[in-house]
């Protein structure tokens, strides 16, 4: 561990590696958030069906799942640096490629490739942070990173809506491509290598064996399901809200952008609370206290749409309260699940992201189907409430398993 200690001792690495990772992550978010107010314009320009609008998000998430099986084990064997640097460069090129799209199909292919950035960031970038810092510091640092990155959903729709009054929507992707390239340069000069001892040579048998071991771990499985269920209300909202509020609700792009501010602002506020005020974010008592906040938000969304007629108030209010509740504990849930076993963390992270993105992609499609074909906002938010209740049960099971593991390790000592 001396190589990690030496790197941490370098102030420049402490500062500039997280900054470059944040810029890369921030840019990846912007590919969805800046175009979100104009996605209906994209669909119409390519003469496609409006029902394809949410596919821009679901295919992005599918891209984020596509390479998980490869990148985690690969980074365990060849190192974190070469894998993340390759991903940042691919992302920049995929954003630039949007400038040359002439059909909805080409646009969606570009979105799929852009989505692979999720693989590189979550499976390699975040794991590097977790490996370089101890538990409490890593959780707080991830909360800070998340807080900064989530400014993208706040300013992205507003900037996107404003810029599209002056430039074509494709120019947005050109700007993001430049940001991605700057992030690549930052990683090139500042990213540490936390894998000193390379793993076994890359082989299909070895990869399959590692994945099998991960998916046989009860704590990992419970944590993965808990995190996946917690994502459903937020990701379904991100994907379907343009159809709800712009296409059906009649809001302008600018009005829609403002409705997203309280939702993502709530997540940022929650992460700031964790980073600044919570001494032990891994405390089971603190984690349990967040659950009533989450469920209250989901109930507000359902009850408000059931009892009152308003195009956006109850949906936005309920989703914002939920976002604050889940933002309080997400970095901790990720840490718990990642370190649930002693297997290579690249493989564990890849396994986790495969589960999360599979569930999210499916939930976007289910949410779109429920809203468009099964009754509108009420049943859409009911899906979110069901997932929130299920998440609470799995969270309780996760905490129980962690307690049993801790007691077992203490008894062995």
From TrEMBL:
Q: How would you describe this protein's topology in the membrane? A: Multi-pass membrane protein
Task: Tell me the keywords, alphabetical order.
Answer: Membrane, Transmembrane, Transmembrane helix
One annotated GO molecular function:
sodium:proton antiporter activity
* Residues annotated as transmembrane: 12-30, 50-71, 83-102, 108-129, 141-163, 169-189, 219-245, 257-278, 290-313, 319-338, 350-372, 378-399
Q: Which InterPro entries match?
A: MFS (IPR011701), MFS_dom (IPR020846), MFS_trans_sf (IPR036259), Sugar_transporter_CS (IPR005829)
An example Pfam family from this entry, by short name, is MFS_1
Locate the Major facilitator superfamily (MFS) profile domain: which residues?
A: 13-405
Subcellular location as annotated: Endomembrane system
Any one GO CC term of the record = plasma membrane
Q: Which PROSITE patterns match?
A: MFS, SUGAR_TRANSPORT_1
SUPFAM superfamilies linked: MFS general substrate transporter (SSF103473)
Q: Name the Gene Ontology biological process terms.
A: xenobiotic detoxification by transmembrane export across the plasma membrane
Keyword Chloroplast tagged: no
Top-level taxon in the UniProt lineage: Bacteria
Predominant subcellular localization, coarse grouping: membrane
- Would you tell me the protein name for this molecule? Putative MFS family arabinose efflux permease
Taxonomic source organism: Enterobacillus tribolii
């Amino acid at each position: 561990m001396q190589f990690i200690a030496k790197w941490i001792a370098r102030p420049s690495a402490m500062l500039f590696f997280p900054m470059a990772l944040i810029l890369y992550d921030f840019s990846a978010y912007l590919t969805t958030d800046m175009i979100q107010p104009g996605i209906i314009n994209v669909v119409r320009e390519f003469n496609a069906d409006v029902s394809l609008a949410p596919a821009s998000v679901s295919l992005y998430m599918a891209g984020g799942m596509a390479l998980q099986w490869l990148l985690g084990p690969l980074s365990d064997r060849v190192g974190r640096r070469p894998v993340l640097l390759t991903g940042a460069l691919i992302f920049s090129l995929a954003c630039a490629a949007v400038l040359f799209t002439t059909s909805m199909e080409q646009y969606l292919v570009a979105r799929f490739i852009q989505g692979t950035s999720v693989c590189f960031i979550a499976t390699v970038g975040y794991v590097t942070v977790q490996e370089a810092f101890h538990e409490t510091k890593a959780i707080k640092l991830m909360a800070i990173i998340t807080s900064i990155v989530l400014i993208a959903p706040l300013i992205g729709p507003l900037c996107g809506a404003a810029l599209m009054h002056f430039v074509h929507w494709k120019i947005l992707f050109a700007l993001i491509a430049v940001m991605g390239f700057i992030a690549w340069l930052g990683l090139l000069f500042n990213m540490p290598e936390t894998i000193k001892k390379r793993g076994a040579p890359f082989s299909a048998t070895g990869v399959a064996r590692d994945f099998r071991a991960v998916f046989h771990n009860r704590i990992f499985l419970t944590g993965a399901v808990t995190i996946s269920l917690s994502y459903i209300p937020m990701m379904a909202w991100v994907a379907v809200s343009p159809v709800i509020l712009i296409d059906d609700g009649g809001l302008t792009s600018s009005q829609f952008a403002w409705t997203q501010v309280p939702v993502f602002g709530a997540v940022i506020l929650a992460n700031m609370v964790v980073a600044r005020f919570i001494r032990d974010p891994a405390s089971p008592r603190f984690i349990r206290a967040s659950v009533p906040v989450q469920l209250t938000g989901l109930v507000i969304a359902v009850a408000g749409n059931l009892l009152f007629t308003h195009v956006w108030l109850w949906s936005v209010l309920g989703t914002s309260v939920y976002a604050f509740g889940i933002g309080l504990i997400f970095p901790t849930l990720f840490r718990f699940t990642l370190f649930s076993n002693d297997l290579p963390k690249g493989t564990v992270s890849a396994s986790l992201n495969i589960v999360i993105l599979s569930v999210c992609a499916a939930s976007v499609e289910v949410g779109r189907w429920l809203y468009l074909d099964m009754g509108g906002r009420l049943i859409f938010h009911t899906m979110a409430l069901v997932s929130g209740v299920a998440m609470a049960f799995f969270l309780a099971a996760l905490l129980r398993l962690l307690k049993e593991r801790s007691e077992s390790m203490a008894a062995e000592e």
